[in-house]
Amino acid sequence: MAITKKHVLSVFILLACVAGFSLSASAGDKLKVGFVYISPIGDAGWTYQHDLGRLALEKNLGDKIETKFIEGVPEGPEAERVIRDLAKSGHDLIFTTSFGYMNPTLKVAKMFPKKHFEHSTGYKTAKNVGTYMCRFYEGRYLTGIVAGKMTKSNILGYVAAFPIPEVIRGINAFTLGARSVNPDIKVKVIWVNSWFDPGKEREASEALITQGADVITHHTDSTAAVLTAEEKGVYAIAYHSDMSKYGPKAHLTAATHVYGDFYTKTTQAVLDKTWKPEAVWSGIKEGSIELAPFNPAVPADVVALVEKTKKGIADGSFHPFHGPIKDQSGKVVVEAGKSLTDKDLLGMNYYVEGVLGNIPK
Amino acid sequence: MFIKIEPRPEPSRAMKYLSPLLAAALMLVSGLIIFTLLGKNPASAFHAFFIEPVNDLYGIGELFIKASPLMLIGTGLAVGFRASIWNIGAEGQLAIGAILGGYIAIIFNDSSGFFILPLMILAGAVGGILWASIPAFLKTVFNANEILVSLMLNYVAILLLAMLVHGPLRDPNGYGFPQSVLFADSAILPVLLEGTRLHLGVFLSLAGVVVGWVFLLKSFTGYQIQVAGLAQKAATYAGYKYKKLIWIGLLSGGVTAGIAGVLEIAGPIGQLLPSVSPGYGYAAIIVAFVGRLHPGGIFLSSLLMALLYLGGESGQMNLDLPSAVTGIFQGLLLFYLLAADFLINYRIRLNTLQQEAD
Amino acid sequence: MDFDIFIHILVAAIAAGTPFVYAALGELVTEKSGVLNLGVEGMMLVGAISGFIAMTKTGSLLVAVLCGMSAGALMACIFAVLTLTLMANQVASGLALTIFGVGLSAFLGLKYTSIALPGVKELHIPVLSDIPVIGQLLFSHDILIYSSFVLFAAVSWFLYKTKAGLILRGIGEAPKSAHALGYNVIKIRYLAVLFGGAMAGLGGAYLSVAYTPMWVEGMVAGRGWVSLALVVFATWRPARVMAGAYLFGGITIAQFHVQGFGIEIPSQLLSMLPYIATIVVLVLISRDQNTIRLNSPASLGITYHPDNQ
User: Fold this and answer.
1) Is position B283 within any domain?
2) Which of A25, B132, B158, C92 is least buried, going by the fewest C-beta atoms within 10 A?
3) How many domains, chain B?
4) Which chain A residues are closer than 8 Å to C16 by Cβ?
5) Which pLDDT score is estimated for C276?
6) Backbone torsions φ then ψ of A116, nearest 5 degrees
7) Taking CA A74 as the corner, what is the angle to CA A73 and CA A78, rounded to the nearest 5 degrees?
8) Which residues of C touch B138 (CB under 8 A)?
9) How far C178 CA sits from the closest chain A CA (Å)?
10) C30 near C192, Cβ under 8 Å?
11) In sequence order, what are the beta bridge partners of B346?
């Protein structure tokens, strides 16, 4: 019986789609919210933070909504099918949490004009597609200050995945933060060409440490950099998640992403029927960027300086990319008294002064 | 009592058809155990895994979209495998095909014309052939092991694709993100069935399987390949040119993989991405064997493989099954299928001690 | 580049090469018996999670290593039943084994992604580790690296100095003749495949317990495939497997160091280097028909069963 009903229902939905309109989830009284994840949730990293956001959403609005996530969805044709299946199965609001889901999300959104879609880290919106991203660079700048104060060798190490603007922005913000307290600092970058390969992340961290880096950070998805720092007795600054249990001594702090408030607010807007497609870029001000608890080794005056800067970013009096900023060749790219615009930030493709090496072309 | 294995005088026709059913039955039993252990109702789990994904037209379209590269590449690889030429580099050949085909789409992005798609497919075929001719050349001239060379070249090709999409082929207005421009309509394979994503490429893949069938089973070269595979030495002595067969065996996989790469980017993807295949090149090897290196069997096994992928997603969506279960399921089914084939050529006899004496 | 950094690269290369050493030496023994098992990646993953689970439950490195080895051997056993008893194709069975292993390890590890392990301490051998350069290179590692040296010695000795090794090689060369001489080809091949699985499992456990002490899905990240390559790259010689493993590890490490010094080479090109180098060396040593013929097991990958002749 159940099977037959489902069959009938799905054929009906299909017909509805073909006819060019879609059904809203009339059956359940709860709003169904779907999440599409690029990797398994795990215990730390990009997807883990999104899932913390989902759990916060459930906690906040649990009586009015139900959530569903699909993990490990590859970018490309797979994503389109999964997003479509979520829409088809009555999910009214769908969060797609990886850059490569941008075009699939837009394609599905076109087929389901009554559903709401939110895509993370992309730059295209549509009538029923909004985008959201954290100002990751704000956290990077703050952790740069910590690294700049804690280094003795004046060499910082940075394990990076792929040379895209988001990663380069992080490297630059980290460097600017560090050099704001210690202008002698050099940042060494090693590209591992993988978001996720613990072995390579370890090897790159080790190479950086051997070359004199005594504080390392990473823009990759595993905890290997922190583990390696702990083993080699240097400091590490984690990214995405608090990784202190992987390096109790090494872990100074972490620049973490917090999505709970955004997910709650957006879902509430859909419930209230006030949702609009927006390009949300939220940071410390909105509580989207947080620092993990500081290691006791970080002196109180450093913590105070970081907190002060954080407050400045939150109230808008301080911008991490304020002039004067020079690029590697010494050319001024941002004049004194000015700050980089969001558009410039989005397309950033150069290193600032103090970063060693070149961006792979 | 002893179990004795003995060859059948000739392959069992009945077992040819029964063995896949036996494998399916074994998998159902394993599924029953796995789902019960996970605390899921096996009936609804099976429904979610095997019925839900294809219970509407769209789902069936998805099944064919997923199966299309597998059947095309699987057929091409089967040509080589029949001659014991082990091309496991289809994943890389697919990537190179996508690079060249995608390059055509990108340079003609502002123009439209009926010639663009055929040119892309041609470019993809050339790319696959070029990449596959490296192991063929190194094997025929330097005797280098083609398994190793083609496997290594996978990594090189995938990195090359990533490098190009991060660099010169990147969308100049894409904020530096690693993806090409979206292809213009004239570089996109048309969708043939409204309400699905079923595109022209799926039919080209089906046509490829038919061509492979004719080539393998009706042509003289196909016969030579068969002979070479059965006894490499005999073929050499019989005067067949083994080197020529190496080239044919490797390039047939290359050309199909290259075309499959173009069909992916001009079909469901619609642009060049740093990665254009979730491992089709490897999966196609298994598809080829499960299909017993016969184009008809490959067609069926590609559909089965595709269903397992879709079932994994559906299981997550409907039953919160962990995505890891998909891999276990695929692995088990393949084990059973490979194991059950044994019954085609052998039978198991339970012997008494007396008979064991010989 | 100063000398210290050069030594560091060499030391790091030995650690990075160790998972390859285990998995490739194991696969070498398997292949010497004439069986090609492409499932190394899957066996390493299952070994990695099993070793990791054992380590978290018992805290004993020995138990972890044994569990990793047993798990790898169990995986290899599936392969052996398929290819040796049921005579399925070795290439397809190996690939299926990898798919199965990727899924199984992810499934087993669902509850273990959040655990941090302390890792394995380096064991500086007294006196010897104080020798300049050599001490650092050879005598300042963790115990699993020393045992990989032992494994190398044992495999070399077994293959070339014992009768059993001679028989194993003979079976890889000509299973029919070995059978005619009264050796149980299938049984010996079973043992060789199981040994290969155990070593792959140990290589995986080295990754999850010592090298990067954590468990995450897919953490072997292609090292099983590289190990397979290394065996052929080494023309089935244990000493060359060692050299190849350290070379491969070394190129990766050196590549990162070159980047750290700010030398401008596109990093994807650098990442391609090890694979291209493997092909080049392969061509150089395969060019001479005799080298290959002398080393390559003649019956490699060909299904054999005594009842079938």
Assistant:
1) yes
2) A25
3) 1
4) 199, 203
5) 85
6) -110, 135
7) 80
8) 279, 282-283, 286
9) 42
10) yes
11) B7
> Per the structure, how many domains does chain C have?
1
Distance CA A242, CA B115 (A): 54
Please write down the HEC assignment for all residues of chain B: CEEEEEECCCCCHHHHHHHHHHHHHHHHHHHHHHHHHCCCCHHHHHHHHHHHHHCCHHHHHHHHHHHHHHHHHHHHHHHHHHCCCCCCCHHHHHHHHHHHHHHHHHHCCCCCCCCHHHHHHHHHHHHHHHHHHHHHHHHHHHCCCHHHHHHHHHHHHHHHHHHHHHCCCCCCCCCCCCCCCCCCHHHCCCECCCCCCCEHHHHHHHHHHHHHHHHHHHCHHHHHHHHHHHCHHHHHHCCCCHHHHHHHHHHHHHHHHHHHHHHHHHHHHCCCCCCCCCCHHHHHHHHHHHCCCCHHHHHHHHHHHHHHHHHHHHHHHHHCCCCHHHHHHHHHHHHHHHHHCHHHHEEEEEECHHHHCC
Quote the distance between the C-alpha of residue A158 and its chain's center. Answer: 17
Give the one of C106, C275, C308 whose C-beta lies nearest to B155's C-beta: C275
B180 lies in some domain: yes
Among candidates A11, A81, A162 on the partner chain, residue whose Cβ is nearest the Cβ of B178: A162
pLDDT tens digits along A106-132: 999 999 999 999 999 888 999 999 999
Of B167, B326, B346, the CB nearest to C103: B326
**Position B52: which residue type?**
E
Cβ-proximal residues to B291 (8 Å cutoff; 6+ apart), any chain? B74, B78, B297, B298, B299, B300, B301, B302
- The C-alpha angle B293, B294, B297, rounded to 5 degrees, equals 105
For the record, the structure tokens of C19 come out as: 């998972």
Q: Which chain A residues contact residue B167 at CB under 8 A?
A: 361
pTM strictly above 0.90: no
Amino acid at B301: S
Question: Are C16 and A222 inside 8 Å of each other by CB?
Answer: no
Structural domain span for residue C198: 3-308
B333 located within any domain:
no
Query: DSSP readout, A278-307?
Result: -EEEE-TTTT-EEEPPPPTTS-HHHHHHHH
Residues with Cβ < 8 Å from A155, sequence gap 6 or more? A185, A186, A187, A188, A211, A212, A213, A214
| Minimal C-alpha gap between C142 and chain B (Å) | 31
In a domain, B259, yes or no: yes
Cα angle, residue B213 at apex, residues B208 and B215 outer, rounded to 5°: 95
Q: Is the peptide bond before A324 cis (omega within 30 degrees of 0)?
A: yes
State what percent of residues in chain C have pLDDT above 70: 94
**Could you tell me the two tokens for C67?**
């569990």
ipTM of the complex: 0.84
SS3 (DSSP) at A339: strand
Fold classification of A136-256+321-346 (topology level): Rossmann fold (3.40.50)
Whether B176 and chain A come into contact, CB under 8 Å, resolves to yes
CATH of the domain at C186: 1.10.3470
For chain A, domain boundaries? 30-134+259-282, 136-256+321-346
Residues C205/C26, Cβ–Cβ less than 8 Å: no
pLDDT digits (tens, 9 = 90+) for B270-321: 999 988 998 899 889 888 988 888 999 999 999 998 998 888 888 888 887 8
Fold of the CATH domain A30-134+259-282: Rossmann fold (3.40.50)
Query: Maximum Cα–Cα distance for chain A, whole Å?
Result: 74
Do the chains contact at A347 and B271, CB–CB below 8 Å? no
